[in-house]
Amino acid sequence: VLDLLGFRLKQWYQRRVRGDGIVVLGVEKRSVPKLQDERTVRKIHKLDDHVCMAFAGLTADARILVNMARVECQSYRLTVEDPVSMSYIARHIASVKQHFTQRPGLRPFGLSTLIVGFDYDGSAHLFQTDPSGTYHEWKANAIGRSGKTVREFLEKHYTDEIAASDEACIKLTVRALLEVVQSGGKNIELAVMRKGQALEILDTATVEKLVEDTEKERDAEAEAKKKAAGKS
């Protein structure tokens, strides 16, 4: 199970203001065998032009759930003639999971998901679903092996000021992942989606640069605190 975290970013000064926004997903990647194509090991999937999903758990189960969600997104678009809303697709995925917990001969889906994207009005959303079929909306959250550790870090450092800046939001994602990832940028995958733009998977060089800058800032903060403690 991998660590996943996500952010929802809106104009911070009023929750109902429709402004530009960003959603960020960070994944701790497992190292793959030397001869394996790492492109076939993906934890982040696009469901529609404005919706994507990341998961922690069984990859085979995720493949089935992703395909079901993609079909529902297109069915909704054909029926309603509008893109699927974030709350609708989150509720649909949670309902599919719950259905598999109560039918004889079936087993529950062995994964948790983070669903992020934008509604037609431009508002950004982040939903989490559990294997039991429950779902909730969050400002920032983490799932997976060390999800509790990362979530506690986010609760401590997430602020409206950070959420108002694209750059700060991405850096906080990296800082949160570095709390549990020991091997630096090579085992981190970052995905960014902005209003009206396609999902962007940041390349390895960009991620490593972000990790390097974040580690320098963290070391500088630690040194400043050490000096302040020495003076007192």
In short:
This protein is 40% helix and 24% strand.
Report the principal-axis shape.
globular
Strand ordering within the main sheet: 8-1-2-9-10
Characterize the biggest β-sheet. Answer: 5 strands, antiparallel
Rg, nearest Å: 18 Å
Distance between the termini: 44 Å
Class of secondary structure makeup: alpha+beta
Tally of alpha and pi helices: 6
Structural write-up:
The protein has 232 residues and is α+β, with helices and mostly antiparallel strands. Helix content is 40%, strand content 24%. The protein contains six helices and ten strands, in the order ββββααββββαααββα. It has helices at 59-80, 86-99, 147-157, 160-163, 166-178, 204-231, and strands spanning 4-9, 22-28, 44-48, 51-57, 111-118, 124-129, 135-137, 140-143, 188-194, 200-201. It has a five-stranded antiparallel beta sheet with strand order 8-1-2-9-10. The protein has a five-stranded antiparallel beta sheet with strand order 3-4-5-6-7, with helices on one face. A hairpin with a 2-residue loop joins strand 3 and strand 4. The protein is globular and about 65 Å long. The relative contact order is 0.18. Residues 9-20 have low confidence and may be disordered.
